[in-house]
Amino acid sequence: xxxxxxxxxxxxxxxxxxxxxxxxxxxxxxxxxxxxxxxxxxxxxxxxxxxxxxxxxxxxxxxxxxxxxxxxxxxxxxxxxxxxxxxxxxxxxxxxxxxxxxxxxxxxxxxxxxxxxxxxxxxxxxxxxxxxxxxxxxxxxxxxxxxxxxxxxxxxxxxxxxxxxxxxxxxxxxxxxxxxxxxxxxxxxxxxxxxxxxxxxxxxxxxxxxxxxxxxxxxxxxxxxxxxxxxxxxxxxxxxxxxxxxxxxxxxxxxxxxxxxxxxxxxxxxxxxxxxxxxxxxxxxxxxxxxxxxxxxxxxxxxxxxxxxxxxxxxxxxxxxxxxxxxxxxxxxxxxxxxxxxxxxxxxxxxxxxxxxxxxxxxxxxxxxxxxxxxxxxxxxxxxxxxxxxxxxxxxxxxxxxxxxxxxxxxxxxxxxxxxxxxxxxxxxxxxxxxxxxxxxxxxxxxxxxxxxxxxxxxxxxxxxxxxxxxxxxxxxxxxxxxxxxxxxxxxxxxxxxxxxxxxxxxxxxxxxxxxxxxxxxxxxxxxxxxxxxxxxxxxxxxxxxxxxxxxxxxxxxxxxxxxxxxxxxx
Length: 571
Known about the structure:
Elements: E1 15-19, E2 25-30, H1 33-38, H2 40-44, E3 54-59, E4 64-77, E5 82-106, E6 112-115, E7 121-123, E8 135-163, E9 166-187, E10 205-209, E11 223-227, H3 229-236, H4 248-251, E12 270-289, E13 292-319, E14 326-354, E15 359-370, E16 381-386, E17 389-394, E18 402-414, E19 420-431, E20 434-441, E21 451-458, E22 461-474, E23 485-499, E24 517-526, E25 530-539, E26 542-545, E27 554-556, E28 559-568
Parallel strand pairs: 17-21
Antiparallel strand pairs: 1-2, 2-6, 3-5, 4-5, 5-8, 6-7, 8-9, 9-12, 10-11, 12-13, 13-14, 14-15, 15-18, 16-17, 18-19, 19-22, 20-21, 22-23, 23-24, 24-25, 25-28, 26-27
């Protein structure tokens, strides 16, 4: 056999790999059990690891969310020059949902063929709709709840005066207190029957039409197998099936699994909670002279956060006898708490010059701070992956806020009350950028493995700079038939430089979510009764995350989007 083989932790062995002129994979075969049985030499040499498997996966699920929110706002005019405004609000949200990842699969005798063109295609050697061929695999069964409570208030005062170029002050204070909590109850069932060694009754599965999800461009099978995940788990949870599990003594232990390995243990929740208190105070002065105006302000912010997590300790992990995943041995519950606080002074200044009656020049400078979300700061850890590629992740209570020094200048020319053109230049100097990153580490529970840990971290420093062009033109004065019609458009170009620690992974990766070029254009019609708008938005390719370890950076291709809206005023 003339074979080209590539071994990958996520996929079975790949054969007959084909490439294009740029070295990109355009197709490959995934061997079936017959090929593996007929090539013992390849298996003995480690070139063939496993036969191909085709999985049916059920993911959950329905999410019930309930939110209660209350607020009150009050405004007072103390004198003609003094005004006061106050807000108080409170809200709470509760979300509950099943977190399911239920896998049943089959090991075909004949291999599958995959090709990657404009639309990927797959040809299954044995098909995927035979309910008599399905075997048990991994089961993830969890119940998750999230709670979010927020209390906040603010008090602002405005003083208007006319003391030469000094025109007044705006000052205020704000305070918020928020707590986010996540609780999960789990069944330690992931590896109980993984490995495709336990046959399943065909009555658990239903032949279901797949439809045509790719239109006329894709080659997809006409049917697949669907199943009820709870009936599937109930079947595997029978005591008579335990001897076929990957560790019968472990999964039959009633002190660990009082209701069987598929049942959720509600006595051992895993939870994390993050509380944050934010205090703000600011003052902003207003200035105005002949042909110019501006403002100068300063904000002080103090943030205190407390993160706590309670979960079982992972004592050890051993390879499953029928799969390359691990059976995890958990110990008693443990609680960890991390506290963090920081303060910041955030100045800002804006200046506007009236070049002519219809031309403006603006300058702006500021320091800004972007706090990590509370969901990113939980004290939590999880372990997964396979032999040769162990993964971990979770929250990061040590996150610092992203800081940015911002500068911009813009020119605006107002051709009429509705028509204008503008151009702007901007630059941001960023530090402690928040992004998903991967770091390789060691864990005592996996003594012979490198653990690839992925979570939100404070990443690179760098500079983001660019230019923007924008304009709007209404056709009211061109012809009476064009009354109400108009167009608007803008274009943005961004040049970003990011500096990363080269020991943590690829460095040829920009800022996640940032496109080098983007533009949008709209055609609109408006009158006193009717409004219509059609828009097209386009953005260049951009980074999703920067990868690391064996994972290359992920990028999203350029794409465009068309939107349209209609509105009619009844009165």
